[in-house]
Amino acid sequence: MRITLFIPCFVDLVHPQVAISMVQILERLGHTVECPRELACCGQPAFNSGYWDESRAIAVNVLSRLRDAEAVVVASGSCGAMLKVFYPELFAKTPHLDAAKSLSTRTWEFSDFLVTRLGVSDVGARFPARVTFHYGCHGLRELGIKQPPRVLLSKVRDIQLLEMKEAETCCGFGGAFAAKFPMISTAMGEVKCASAAETGAEYIVSNDSSCLMHIQGLLSRQGKSVKTIHLAEILARQ
Amino acid sequence: MNTFAAQFRKQSLRLTRDLRHRLLIQTALGKYETQRDQRKAAFQDWQSARQAAAEIKWDAINHLDTHLRDFVSRIEARGTVVHWASTAAQARDIILGIVRDSKARSIIKSKAMTAEEIHLNDALEKAGFEVVESDLGEFIVQLRHEPPYHIVFPAMHLTRGEISELFTRELGSAPTSSPEELTMIARRALRKKYLTADVGITGANFAIAETGMISITENEGNARLTAALPRVMISLLGIEKILPRLADLALFLPMLATAGAGQALTCYNSLYGGPRQPGESDGPEQFHVVLLDNRRTELLADAEQRDALHCIRCGACLNVCPIFRNVGGHTYGTTYSGPIGSVITPHLRGLQDWKHLSSASSLCGACTEACPVKIDLHHHLLQNRRNSVAQKPARLEKLAYKLFAFVINRPWLYALAKKFARVCQPLHSLVKGKRIDPAYGWTQSRDLPNLASRSFKEWWKDRK
What we know:
The complex is a heterodimer.
Chain A: E1 2-6, H1 9-14, H2 16-28, E2 32-34, H3 44-48, H4 52-65, E3 71-74, H5 77-90, H6 97-106, E4 107-109, H7 110-117, E5 130-134, H8 137-142, H9 148-154, E6 160-161, H10 177-180, H11 182-198, E7 203-206, H12 209-221, E8 227-230, H13 231-236
Parallel strand pairs in A: 1-2, 1-3, 3-4, 5-6, 5-7, 7-8
Helix pairs in contact in A: 5-6, 7-9, 11-12
Chain B: H1 3-16, H2 19-41, H3 46-62, H4 64-76, E1 81-85, H5 88-101, E2 106-109, H6 113-117, H7 120-126, E3 130-133, H8 136-143, H9 160-171, H10 179-196, E4 199-202, E5 206-208, E6 213-218, H11 222-228, E7 232-238, E8 242-243, H12 249-261, E9 268-272, E10 286-292, H13 296-301, H14 316-320, H15 322-327, H16 338-349, H17 351-359, H18 366-370, H19 377-391, H20 395-408, H21 411-431, H22 440-443, H23 456-463
Parallel strand pairs in B: 1-10, 2-3, 2-4, 4-7, 5-8, 7-10
Antiparallel strand pairs in B: 5-6, 6-9
Helix pairs in contact in B: 1-17, 2-12, 9-10, 16-17, 16-19, 17-19
């Protein structure tokens, strides 16, 4: 299958290894991967802040670039939700609505794509460490992706998965919210980090890099030894 | 920034740093979640129950005009006097008028968030009447001269020790750490008030159009005494409380108890259809129902967010909200706090004054998932943000997003910006975490990730 990988700006800039891992996994499975240079952002920051015109200015290019894509795999549940759930809303009552609806049906979050679309659960990964899993809210509640990341983790060799309390509670990132209301966002992050620390895990793993960027930022500032890692990075290890 | 937003920020800063508050609320709501989940499991299918409840409420709200007419004509037929109040001021005047006409001196009141909404107690006290809250939690916060902390658990922010100290100071009771004894102290104080009160004021959980009755659900029996003992009973309710049929309660009562408090059913469930009827031995001589609009009809006119009128005030969205759990109920500065409050307050009290509540959310969607009547809460927060920007954009923010789009839409410029950012990164360490740092919002409490020496797109290009 020809897969178009959508790499959001923050993955491109600060977590390139996540995207590289996805390319490796998909190619190992025998698929052709393309990463269009023109795709850098889905327009969610402006959308979430209420600036829908400015968001459309970006999103309309995404729509046109992905018009003929067979399957679009997004390297973040949050950006995936933007394409799949929010584009049809953003383009309601515009001539682009049909294109937005069509893209929605062809868009997948990475773990969901592997498990639901490709029917793959074991990618032959090995990761000898204690991990705890954190759900990104957009992947979980906008896209309803609950089982796929867990199915994939369960097939990783030598991994020990420890359940944290309230794995489904938000880590406090929320995009611009984290900078607009830093005190609330930080408190939420502290609650999340405490739940993760209680498990004794060495790694907090998630299928969304944006949450991990927030959690890692807190852990680093507080000098904690727990590390964060994206699901794709674990799946690429052999 | 307006004063409401500034106050919200100030209180948030205080409460999020208060680790004692954090532990208290997280523990209490953690217990709630366990019980709620046990009760939810007792439903044959919780998701279908939510869907059914949402559909019933959809019917109630989208045919509100006919349901209200039915409700009023049927409850009036039993001698109830119905009053229509368009504004909070009208509702206060109506209730003051009834109280004055009945030559009352003291008033007993059961829990009613609508009364908080119109600041009824203030108005009654200013007019010289004594008002006593009979719900235990409300009784406690009234003694503290505080608004309720939570729409269902008004005193959940207090420990037994604090309540004991309060009772000792205000009621002269002996200190105790036993919840039962604390309850008995309040009960002794309240029993006298029920007997001497001339007027009882209640809220309502539902108004049944089919039979012309109001439904009140409570755990302490205080609302029954409030309704039964005084000569005059007044019930104040929002027009959205309508349920079409009596049988709808079979779904809504257990649902409210489950979502609201993790109970199978609330302890006391009463229906009131009128004052004392000929031949009856008890009940109030007069029964007044005050139907409150107070800008609910404006929400009704908004097709996108009309479902916010489905709300049965169970508080489930507050309980699961990580924002509420960290900033607490008083920080919002509104009658209705938590996600539902952030959604409806801009409609009830002005978007520009209250838009900050819609921004103070990570949009995690836990509220929408918890809502038993399926209000699309977190998406309404997004719509409020959009509406507020359409009305009055923040110029700098708008410019920033325009500039961002300009760069993103030009791959060569984006590539150049990446190189520039990498050059600037070492300089950032000079200001990192300080107030002059442009990223201070983030760096005051968190480290920024380092830019990779080679971005993914550079890797991809080199690889080909």
